[in-house]
Design brief:
The protein is an alpha+beta fold. The chain has two domains: 49-307, DD-peptidase/beta-lactamase superfamily (Beta-lactamase); 315-399, D-Ala-D-Ala carboxypeptidase, C-terminal domain (Peptidoglycan synthesis regulatory factor (PBP3), Domain 2), CATH 2.60.410.10. It has twelve helices and 18 strands. The strands form six sheets. The chain has a five-stranded antiparallel β-sheet with strand order 2-1-9-8-7, sandwiched between helices. A four-stranded antiparallel β-sheet has the order 13-18-17-15, with no helix packed on it. It has a three-stranded mixed β-sheet with strand order 12-11-16, with no helix packed on it.
């Protein structure tokens, strides 16, 4: 009897495994029949290949299967790897990186609040692809819609937020294109706020990296982009992050996936370890697994080969600067922010500093006036600089000032 029960359990387990394994990545189509953003029915059950792959060894340039790719260090903006980085391609839902950036900037500037209530328009509710099935006139808070857009890549939630900020999706797209210009994104034209395939809607891996770098500079986004699972409507609507690296890659901070029939499989993945945060962008990958594996390889490559260092500068060595013909004989100096330097791992001890500062200066001196700099050197090459500035103002001696000082001395004798 016990033996029969064991056999039945084995058969049941095998059937369950077959059902789960067959639930592969599902295609969700838009109103035109195009494959929109991805939805994973197996995310909760299977460990993806990306989590099992070995790390790229130090100094080995990664091979990526995507058509275009960029690896960028976030704090410096330095590009560590690129492949067809400026090729203009359909971005699918990584379009939402710019959408999310404008929304987060509006929140951080106090223009909108997380608690603001947004009413869904018929246009927002009509979006195909990944969605939370908003109904016309249905209301949700900005916080709830952000969760839907950032975690589950919901097109309807993204458009609802766009309309809330700009009044219409068209006006919001104008804001997206303007912000792209401000960030130096020269390969980009946006036509919508969610990323569904549209003629003339394109960007490049380099531009996506620039937008991603700017987005992760706002800590607010990481409240959403690092969440693996969440829910809305009192638990009735489940949200599962489309970015598997959030769950399976150490230090992952986001950021956004995208898939359409035209764009292929796209991903902007960000991760932070220690002081260094990397942005890994892959576009037009041939499969979902390749997308995650390629992004992970790039991240591994970056963390294995580079490090962030801050030069050690003794502020006590910064002597005051003599002021000629000034109301004070000298002015104190201080240094601007000691910026992070991106270096190859193992080169930390090669960093040296060289102080260049004026020994004297003629009045007047303005507070904040640059009086010199500190060159950050490695192997006799300058790899960075830190400005030295006056900590206070010093006026030039005038006749009235001299007369006033003379009188003060006479009356104190």
């Amino acid at each position: 009897m016990i033996g029969k029960r064991i056999v039945l359990c084995i058969i049941a387990f095998s059937m369950m495994f077959t059902i789960v394994a067959s639930a592969s990545e599902s295609d969700i189509t838009d109103v035109n029949g195009n494959v929109a953003t991805e939805y994973y029915s197996d995310d909760l059950y299977q460990l993806p290949e990306v989590a099992q792959a070995n790390a790229v060894p130090a100094s080995a340039a990664p091979e990526v299967g995507s058509k275009s790719a960029v690896l960028m260090e976030a704090s410096t903006g330095k590009v560590l790897f690129e492949k067809n980085s400026h090729e203009k391609l359909s971005p699918a839902s990584i379009t939402k990186i710019m959408t999310l950036l404008i929304i987060i900037e509006a929140i951080d500037k106090g223009k909108i609040s997380m608690k603001d209530v947004v009413a869904t328009s018929p246009h927002a509710a009509s979006m195909g692809g990944s969605q939370i099935w908003l109904e016309p006139k249905e209301t949700m808070t900005v916080n709830e819609l952000l969760r839907a857009a950032a975690i589950a890549s919901a097109n309807d939630a993204s458009v609802a937020l766009a309309e809330f900020i700009a009044g219409s999706e068209e006006a919001f797209v104008d804001m997206m294109n303007q912000r792209a210009k401000e960030l130096g994104m020269k390969d980009t034209v946006f036509k919508n706020a969610c990323g569904l395939d549209t003629e003339g809607h394109y960007t490049s891996a380099m531009d996506v990296a620039l937008a991603s770098r700017e987005l992760i500079s706002h800590d607010t986004i990481k409240q959403f982009s690092t969440v693996w699972m969440d829910s809305l409507r009192g638990g009735q609507t489940q949200l599962v992050n489309t970015n598997k690296l959030v769950r399976f890659y150490q230090g992952c901070t986001g950021l956004k996936t995208g898939t359409t029939s035209k764009a292929g499989f796209c991903l902007s993945a960000t991760a932070k370890r220690g002081e260094m945060e990397l942005v890994s962008v892959v576009m037009n990958s041939p499969s979902g697994d390749d997308r995650f594996n390629s992004a992970r390889k790039l991240l591994d490559y970056g963390f294995a080969n580079w490090n962030i260092a801050k030069p050690q500068i003794d502020e006590k060595s910064l002597a005051d600067v003599k002021v000629l013909h000034g109301t004070n004989p000298a002015v104190g100096i201080d240094m601007s922010e000691n910026k992070s330097i991106l270096i190859k791992k193992g080169d930390e001890k090669k960093i040296t500093t060289k102080i260049n500062v004026q020994t004297e200066i003629s009045a007047p001196v303005k507070e904040g006036q640059i009086l010199g700099n500190i060159d950050i050197m490695m192997d006799n090459q300058k790899i960075g600089t830190v400005d030295l500035y006056a900590v206070s103002s010093v006026d030039k001696v005038s006749f009235m000032y001299s007369l006033t000082e003379l009188l003060k001395r006479l009356f104190t004798l």
